[in-house]
C-alpha cells in the first residue's frame, strides 16, 4: 500500500475519548513515546515516518488475531485505543500524527473503524492482501462467537422460560446502551470541524430527520436531502438550501393528499421482504454502506427492513441480538450475523441459517474492506474535496435523528412490550405485563446511570451479565405464568 504523501486533514474531536482511554492501559502520553514528535518538528517527516515490520501472511494473521481479535472487548473506543497502544505507542509502526490523520479518514467511511485500522496496518506490512488478512483476523473471533451464540439462542428455543426471563431483563439494558451511544455520536456529529463548536444547522438536520421519521418519510430521502442542504449552507447558498428544505415537505403534503399518510413500512426499501440468501446479502451490503461511524447507523436500517417491512424477525429478538453483540469481542455490526442466522432459519432450517449468517456478514463488511483496501490515495482525494466533505457532514448530522427515533422505539418495546402484550386475555395477564413495565423502567434508569458513571470497557459486560442473572428473579414468574 502506498504511503500517504499528502497531509491528512486535521483529526476531528469525534471519539476524542479514545485519547484518554489509552491511559487506562497504563501508557504514558502517546507523544512521549513517538521519536518523530521529539526529534523533529517537521510535520511532513512525521506523516512519512514508517517502521512497519514485514510479516508473512500467516504471521500477519496471527498477530492481529491474538493481539486484537481475541481481545476486542468493550466497543469501538476500547478497540481503537488497544490498536493505537500496541502498534503506535509501543511498537511505533507509524507516528501519532499519521495515526490521527488516518483515523480522521476512516471516520467518514462506512464500516467499523477498528477493523479498518487493522486493514490499514495490514496493508502497510504486506500490501493489499495483507490488509484483507489483517481485517479477517480481527473480525473472525467475534464472528465465530456470534455464530455460536445464534445457534445456542435457537437451540434454547424462544419459549424457554429461563432463557426469556434473562433476555427480558436485558432489553431495557440495550435501550440504555443505545441512549448513551446516541448521545456520544451526537456529540461528535453536530460539531463544526473548523470551530470545534456545535453547528446549529447540523442540530436542525438531526431534529428534522427525526420528525421526518415520525412522518414516515423514507430514510434515504431525509439523509440525501440534508446532505445536499448542508452542502448549500456550507457555501452560504441560502436560497437553494431553503428551497430544498421546503420542497421536501411540499412533496410530502402532496403525497398525503393523494395517497394518504405513509405506513410504517414505507420507511424501508423493501430489499429483504423474505430472508432468502440473496436478500440477506443485499440487506447486509446496503446496511454496511450506511454504517458511517459504526453499527449504530446500520441498526435503524436493518430494523426497518427485517422487523417492520419483512416481518420475519420479531422486535424482541432484534433487541436480543444487539445485547449479544455488545458483549462479544467484535465490532457491533456483528449483530448482522445473528439477524442472518435467524432469517435463514426462518426461511429454510438450520443449514440455511448458517448460510444466511455468512452471506449477511460478508455483505455488511464488504464496503469497509472495499474502501480501505482501495488505498489512501483515493481516500485523501475524498477527504480533501470540500464539496463532498460538507455532504458527509450533513448526512452524519441527519443520521442522529434516525438513530434517536429507533432508540425510542426500542425503549418503548423493552419497557412496555408490544401492543399485543398489553391486550392479552385474560385481563390478569395484561395487568401483569403492565405492572412489570415499572420494573423494566427501573432497570433502564439504573443501567443508564451505570453506563455514564463507569466508562471502563468491562462495565458493559458486567452490566449485561448482572441483568441476565437479575432477570431470573424479576421476570421468571411473569413469563412462567403465561
From TrEMBL:
Membrane topology category: Multi-pass membrane protein
UniProt feature coiled coil, ranges: none
GO molecular function terms attached to this record: chromate transmembrane transporter activity
Organism superkingdom: Eukaryota
Region span, Disordered: 1-43
Residue ranges of the TM segments: 60-83, 129-153, 201-225, 237-258, 278-296, 317-341, 353-375, 387-411, 431-451, 458-476
Major subcellular location class: membrane
A single Gene Ontology CC term: plasma membrane
InterPro entries with a match to the protein in the record: Chr_Tranpt_l_chain, CHR_Transporter, Chromate_transpt
Keywords: Cell membrane, Membrane, Transmembrane, Transmembrane helix
Compartments, record wording: Cell membrane
Protein's UniProt keywords contain Methyltransferase: no
Family note: Belongs to the chromate ion transporter (CHR) (TC 2.A.51) family.
NCBIfam families: 2A51
Protein name as it appears in the record: Chromate transporter
Taxonomic classification: Eukaryota, Fungi, Dikarya, Ascomycota, Pezizomycotina
Amino acid at each position: 500500500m502506498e504511503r500517504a504523501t499528502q497531509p491528512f486533514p486535521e483529526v476531528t474531536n469525534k471519539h476524542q475519548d479514545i485519547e484518554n482511554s489509552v491511559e487506562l492501559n497504563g501508557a504514558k502520553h502517546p507523544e512521549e513515546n513517538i521519536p518523530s514528535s521529539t526529534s523533529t518538528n517537521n510535520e511532513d517527516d512525521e506523516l512519512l515516518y514508517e517502521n512497519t515490520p514485514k510479516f508473512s501472511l500467516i504471521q500477519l494473521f496471527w498477530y492481529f488475531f491474538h493481539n486484537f481479535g481475541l481481545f476486542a472487548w468493550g466497543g469501538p473506543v476500547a478497540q481503537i485505543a488497544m490498536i493505537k497502544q500496541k502498534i503506535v505507542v509501543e511498537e511505533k509502526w507509524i507516528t501519532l500524527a499519521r495515526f490521527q490523520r488516518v483515523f480522521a479518514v476512516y471516520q467518514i467511511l462506512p464500516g467499523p473503524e477498528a477493523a479498518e485500522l487493522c486493514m490499514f496496518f495490514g496493508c502497510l506490512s504486506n500490501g493489499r492482501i495483507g490488509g484483507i488478512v489483517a481485517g479477517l483476523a480481527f473480525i473472525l473471533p467475534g464472528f465465530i462467537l456470534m455464530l455460536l451464540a445464534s445457534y445456542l439462542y435457537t437451540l434454547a428455543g424462544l419459549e424457554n422460560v429461563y432463557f426469556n426471563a434473562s433476555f427480558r431483563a436485558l432489553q431495557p439494558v440495550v435501550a440504555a446502551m443505545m441512549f448513551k451511544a446516541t448521545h456520544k455520536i451526537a456529540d461528535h456529529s453536530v460539531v463544526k470541524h473548523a470551530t470545534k463548536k456545535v453547528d446549529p444547522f447540523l442540530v436542525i438536520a438531526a431534529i428534522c430527520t427525526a420528525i421526518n421519521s415520525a412522518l414516515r418519510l423514507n430514510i434515504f430521502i431525509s439523509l440525501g436531502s440534508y446532505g445536499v442542504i448542508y452542502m448549500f449552507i456550507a457555501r452560504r447558498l441560502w436560497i437553494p438550501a431553503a428551497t430544498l428544505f421546503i420542497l421536501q415537505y411540499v412533496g410530502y403534503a402532496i403525497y398525503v393528499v393523494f395517497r394518504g399518510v405513509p405506513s410504517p413500512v414505507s420507511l424501508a426499501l423493501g430489499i429483504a421482504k423474505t430472508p432468502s440468501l440473496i436478500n440477506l446479502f443485499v440487506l447486509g451490503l446496503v446496511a454496511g454502506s450506511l454504517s458511517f461511524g459504526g453499527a449504530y447507523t446500520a441498526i435503524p436500517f436493518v430494523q426497518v427492513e427485517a422487523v417492520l417491512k419483512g416481518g420475519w424477525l420479531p422486535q424482541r429478538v432484534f433487541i436480543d441480538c444487539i445485547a449479544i453483540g455488545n458483549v462479544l469481542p467484535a465490532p457491533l455490526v456483528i449483530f448482522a450475523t445473528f439477524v442472518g442466522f435467524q432469517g435463514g432459519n426462518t426461511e429454510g432450517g438450520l443449514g440455511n441459517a448458517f448460510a444466511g449468517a455468512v452471506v449477511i456478514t460478508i455483505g455488511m463488511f464488504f464496503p469497509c474492506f472495499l474502501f480501505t483496501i482501495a488505498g489512501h490515495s483515493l481516500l485523501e482525494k475524498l477527504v480533501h474535496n470540500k464539496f463532498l466533505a460538507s455532504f458527509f457532514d450533513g448526512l452524519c448530522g441527519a443520521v442522529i435523528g434516525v438513530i434517536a427515533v429507533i432508540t425510542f422505539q426500542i425503549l418503548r418495546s423493552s419497557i412496555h412490550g408490544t401492543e399485543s402484550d398489553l391486550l392479552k386475555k385474560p385481563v390478569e395477564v395484561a395487568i401483569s405485563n403492565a405492572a412489570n413495565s415499572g420494573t423494566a423502567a427501573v432497570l433502564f434508569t439504573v443501567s443508564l446511570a451505570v453506563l455514564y458513571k463507569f466508562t471502563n470497557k468491562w462495565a458493559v459486560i458486567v452490566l449485561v451479565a448482572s441483568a441476565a442473572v437479575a432477570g431470573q428473579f424479576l421476570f421468571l414468574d411473569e413469563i412462567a405464568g403465561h
